[in-house]
Amino acid sequence: MMWRPRVGLLGGTFDPIHNGHIAAARAAQQALALDVVRFIPSARPPHRAGSPRASEYHRLEMIRVAVADAATSDDQVRWEVSDLELRRDGLSYTYDTLSALHAEGLSALQIFFIIGADAFSEIATWYRYPEVLDFVNFAVVARPGMTNDMLRNLLPSLAERLAGLSQIAQSTEPRVVLIDANTPDVSSTDIRHRAARGESLTGLVPSPIAAYIAHHLLYRDAPDAPTAPRPFGPPDAPVGK
Ligand code: ATP
Ligand code: MG
Question: I need a labelling partner for 116 at 20 to 30 A (CA). Which of 39, 139, 179, 223 fits?
Answer without folding.
Answer: 223
